[in-house]
Amino acid sequence: MTAKRIAEGVYYTGTIDWDRRTFDELVALPRGTSYNSYLISGSSATALIDSTEPSMADELLRTLEEMDAEINYIVSQHAEQDHSGTIPELLEIYPEAEVLGTPPCIEFLEELLRIKGNFREVRDGETLSLGDKTLRFTVTPWVHWPDTMVTYLEEEGILFTCDFFGSHIATSEIMETPEDFLREAKRYYAHIMMPFSQMVTSNLSKISKLEVSMIAPSHGPVISEPELIMDAYAAWTSGGDGVVIAYTTMHGSTRVMVERLTEKLMELDVGVRPVNVAEHDTGEFLTELVDASVLVVASPTVLTRPHPAIASALYLVNALKPPVKYVAVMGSYGWGSLIESEVRKLLSNLNVEYLESVLVKGLPLEEDLQRVDELAMKIKGVNGW
């Protein structure tokens, strides 16, 4: 695509992947994505910030050729291949270019891409002069790999953040901030940043000292109102007080319990979101967990264990570590159930308190549903609604 000017001497040179529908064979991308890179042309040198996914290499190289760019520096803010994968081709065209990154990033580049080059490690706070433009590097580890850093263009106040503050949105209006972009940014946060919420908080504090006029991430649109996304991140890292019911059902018995719990919680003015994990993509489920303090796991029994769809969902919960404080287990079984003990094993990474389980043999009777009502009252009580 044609480069887009975003400030004096600063150009968006990203590639847009309109049709991609999954990322890492895990994350659903209902709106596609983009792999953003930026060319910064100073009076004495030019730097390219990040590259693109290898499959989109030709598009980036064509854009740079049309710009007749001479690149002196390639800034690699994060070594994962969707941002670094075209560096080998870039070094063939610009063999004199110096590749800059944090020490872990340089190590990753050598290992992931199997390349050797004119690499230079940068330190936290180090600056790079391009003549009339100055880049300042701030090391921001674990958003979301140990190698990550952001780059601040001092004269324009533009903060280039790679995955930090990103969103999976393919749009031709890359310089516009879509009204609903926070929903996609939250979905992105749930998958990518949630396991590292403490480090996200630390890095938010670190960059809060900068006067930022614009945030230029490496996925999704440029964000012209930085406070929108920075305030959202501050809220997401703080958790919330919602209830998420992760459920599936085989013959309807578990659904009866889920519907009763949902109805009762709503009567009690408790925010609740039931998600049938067998019918929704994981992104919807995980996004809801960003604001959840209570997770209810509701599953039928399959060979004494939770339904595979529930087990798969809990595997992700255990890995992504949402801010859940309480877990409750519900379900229906035929001849035997180990669901409660299995759920505890599947969520072994979470530091949570378990509420009393409601497990029912067969279709729940009214006395079973009364126990569901009691669970609802307990949930209301523990979170102080």
Q: What are the main properties of this structure?
A:
385 residues, alpha/beta, 7-stranded mixed β-sheet, 24 strands, 33% helix, elongated, Rubredoxin-O_OxRdtase, Flavodoxin/NO_synth
Number of helices: 12
Widest sheet: strand order?
A: 1-2-7-8-9-10-11
Rg calculated over all Cα atoms: 24 Å
Q: Count of DSSP E strands?
A: 24
Average pLDDT works out at: 95
Q: Which blocks of ≥5 consecutive residues have pLDDT under 50?
A: none
Q: How much of the residues is beta strand, in percent? A: 15-25%
Largest sheet: 7 strands, mixed
Structural class, from helix and strand content? alpha/beta
Shape: elongated
Overall number of structural domains: 2
The helicity comes to 25-40%
Terminus-to-terminus distance: 51 Å
